[in-house]
Specification:
Helix content is about 70%, strand content about 0%. The protein is mostly helical and about 300 residues long. About 25% of the residues are buried.
C-alpha cells in the first residue's frame, strides 16, 4: 500500500508541461503554421533538388544541378538586378515622403481627417485597380502626365514602353499606392514623442528646425529602422504591379526575379528549376535584410 506522502511519478510534471494551457491555446496556430508554412517550405526545397516539371513523367532526383544552373543563368541575375534597382528607387521615397506627410499632419493642419484619409486611402485599393488607373495615366496620347508635359512644353514619354523610364514609372505608382502605410506608422510614432521635450527646447530658444533635428528625428530612429527593413522586404518581393502594368517589359527591362520564377515555373513548366531560383532569392533576401537591420541598429546606438 503506497504512502499518502509518496512522491509523484517522475514523468508526470513533464507531461503536465507538455499539455499546459498555453500550449493548448497555441496548438491551432502551430498546426496551421506547420501545414501552410513548414510543409510547403520542405516540399519546395525537395522540389528544387529534382527535375520536377508540369508533365506526366515522375520527377527524378538531380541534386544541386538546378542551383548550379541558376548561378550560371544570366537572365536570373538580370532579373535580380532589376529587383535591386526597383528596391532602391522605391524604398528611399517611401520612407522620406511618408515622414514628410506625417510631419505635415502632426503639425496640426486644418481638416486633419481629410489629409489622413487622402494619404491612406490609396493603400486600401487592390492592385488591379491601381494598375488599371495608372496605365491610363501613363497613356502616351491620352494620359494625364503627357498632357501636363505637353502643356508645359516638355518632352513627352512612352512611360511603360520606354526602357529608360518604365521602372521609374512603376516606382512612382508604388509610391502613390503604398506610402499611406508608412505614413500611419510615422504618425503613430510622432504622437508618442513626449511633449515636455519640445517645451524644454522652446524654453531654451530652439527653433522649429533645431527641434526637428535634435528631438523629432532621434525619437523616430527606431520606427525608421522598422519601416526601412519592412519596405526593403516588400520592394524585393515586387511582382503584382509590374506584371499588370508591363509584364516585365519592354524587352524584360522591368522583370523582377519573382516574375522570372513565375515565367520559368508556369510558362516554361520547369518547377524544380523555379524552386531552386526561389530558394536562392530567399537566401539573398534574408542576408540583405539581416545586414541592413544590424547596420541600422548599430548606427542608431
Amino acid at each position: 500500500m503506497s504512502s499518502p506522502h509518496a512522491s509523484p511519478r517522475p514523468g508526470l510534471p513533464a507531461l503536465r508541461r507538455l499539455f499546459s494551457p498555453g500550449l493548448l491555446f497555441a496548438l491551432p496556430f502551430l498546426v496551421l503554421f506547420a501545414v501552410f508554412m513548414v510543409w510547403p517550405l520542405g516540399q519546395g526545397l525537395w522540389m528544387s533538388l529534382t527535375d520536377r516539371a508540369l508533365s506526366a513523367h515522375a520527377p527524378s532526383f538531380i541534386g544541386l544541378d538546378n542551383f548550379t544552373e541558376a548561378f550560371r543563368d544570366a537572365e536570373m541575375w538580370r532579373a535580380l538586378g532589376h529587383t535591386v534597382w526597383f528596391t532602391v528607387l522605391s524604398t528611399v521615397p517611401l520612407v522620406v515622403v511618408a515622414l514628410g506627410m506625417a510631419l505635415l499632419v502632426h503639425t496640426g493642419l486644418p481638416g486633419q481627417w481629410v489629409w489622413r484619409l487622402a494619404f491612406f486611402a490609396p493603400y486600401l485599393l487592390p492592385v488591379g485597380v491601381v494598375g488599371l488607373l495608372w496605365i491610363w495615366l501613363y497613356q502616351p496620347d491620352l494620359g494625364l502626365y503627357n498632357h501636363l508635359l505637353d502643356a508645359l512644353g516638355l518632352t513627352q514619354y512612352a512611360w511603360l514602353s520606354d526602357e529608360s523610364v518604365a521602372m521609374w514609372a512603376i516606382a512612382l505608382t508604388t509610391l502613390w499606392w503604398t506610402v499611406g502605410f508608412n505614413f500611419l506608422l510615422y504618425l503613430a510614432a510622432l504622437q508618442s514623442v513626449p511633449d515636455h521635450l519640445y517645451e524644454a527646447a522652446a524654453i531654451d530658444g530652439a527653433g522649429a528646425w533645431r527641434r526637428l533635428w535634435s528631438i523629432t528625428l532621434p525619437q523616430l530612429s527606431r520606427i525608421t529602422v522598422v519601416i526601412t527593413v519592412l519596405q526593403v522586404l516588400a520592394s524585393l518581393k515586387v511582382f503584382d504591379q509590374v506584371y499588370l502594368m508591363t509584364k516585365g517589359g519592354p524587352n524584360n527591362s522591368t522583370r523582377p526575379v519573382v516574375e522570372y520564377v513565375y515565367d520559368v515555373g508556369f510558362t516554361g513548366y520547369r518547377l524544380g528549376y523555379a524552386s531552386a531560383i526561389s530558394y536562392i532569392f530567399f537566401a539573398l533576401v534574408v542576408l540583405a535584410s539581416a545586414a541592413q537591420f544590424f547596420a541600422l541598429r548599430r548606427r542608431e546606438k
